[in-house]
Amino acid sequence: MILGWREWVALPDLGVGAVHAKLDTGARTSALHVVEIDIYRRAGRKWVRFKVDPDPKRPNRLIETAAPLIDERVVKSSSGVGELRAVVETRIAVGGREWPIEVSLTSRDEMRFRMLIGRAALAGRVVIDPKRSNVAGTPRRPRRKVVK
User: Fold this and answer.
1) In Å, how far from its chain's centre is CA 48?
2) Are strands 82-94 and 45-52 parallel, antiparallel or unpaired?
3) Which of 38, 50, 85, 129 is the most buried (most CB within 10 A)?
4) H or E segment at 38?
5) Over the stretch 51-65, which tens digit does the pLDDT of each residue have?
């Protein structure tokens, strides 16, 4: 599949119908902008509850969700600073295809894109044409409770 350097993607397991993401082969790990991260135990397993803030133009439209915590990792930002992040596995949907990816949860409030898709999520599935953007169109939006 050929995609541009930025694309609209969905994260159906998390109830995120559309988030504008930057595809970045320079980054290994994918990252999603979230707020209010809370790690807790459910049926003897660690879970993480958080709110996704997919649209910087509408910061009052948060999507409350939860997922099993698969890891906590130190991830270095583009400035080289390490941060301990919760990591979840979820499906990504783009261009009519879906596959599982690992996503670290962090504040990307100062970044232009609410999601960064790293090379681990793209390898073997996607070729990026850096001259193009939004090749795949906008994904269908699933119905999900929106927290105000």
Assistant:
1) 14
2) unpaired
3) 50
4) strand 30-42
5) 998 887 776 789 999
